[in-house]
Amino acid sequence: MKIAGEPESTSKDEAEYHSHDFEWEDLKAEVEADPAFSYHLSPFVGPAATTNSPPPPPPPPSSEAWRSFHRRHASGKFFKERRYLLKEFPELLNRNDCAKILEVGCGNGSTAVSVLRASESITVACDCSKDTLQKANEIISNSKGIDVKDRFCPFLLDVSKESFPDWLFCKACQSSLGQADGHLSDLNHHKMIKERPVFLRENQCCIGGMDFITMIFTLSAIPFDIMLSTLKYCVSVLKPGGLLLFRDYGNGSDIQW
């Protein structure tokens, strides 16, 4: 769609660029046929439901279900590069300095690759599946037009069960800014995230917090009863003034959560 006042060449270039995201009908059919996503098709029953109401939908798939899903789609063809996100979240580009971005539930890197291509930001990304993290690293490293040296740092983590590594925003730095939050301090520190990222200098205790956190079709995969606490925990590693950006299914979507 052409925007009033927009140069014709720009409009055509953007239409060509965004036309390669993915085919919605193909994506819908594949998701609906996958048992791991069956809960998306069930009606949501809120806390005010009566005793005569139908039973609540099954919980979102477990971390193992997601790992199984990503193994089945190891080719990377299921998720296409999310080029539209920079239109929806222009904040990711409106920075004069090098933004620090955390992607929670990165999948095979379809969000990170768009951000890395369009900016000089540093992106750290976590997912509960080791297989899909390896695929994300492979896809991003082999993408044309992206210099990812010291700019992409994937690590294994299930945000619903495990705590973020201290090098994101250590407790001392959080406390100095008056925002230390220990409400999830009992979560496990995963053994595979202890290694510091290469872009941290030796005298740095941590990144110092994130400018942005993205959760793209991630929130709906988290059990409903811990969604709020998970969001609060994610916000705890944001710098003051940082933004949490999320996109997910909603009422009226082909696939609802």
UniProtKB/TrEMBL annotation:
| PANTHER family membership | METHYLTRANSFERASE-RELATED, TRNA N(3)-METHYLCYTIDINE METHYLTRANSFERASE
Lipoprotein is among the record's keywords? no
Q: What is this protein called?
A: Methyltransferase-like protein
Q: Which family does it belong to?
A: Belongs to the methyltransferase superfamily. METL family.
SUPFAM superfamilies from the UniProt entry: S-adenosyl-L-methionine-dependent methyltransferases (SSF53335)
Give the start-end ranges of region Disordered.
42-66
Indicate the secretion signal residues.
none
Q: Where is the composition biased (Pro residues)?
A: 53-62
> What is the primary gene name for this protein?
gb27461
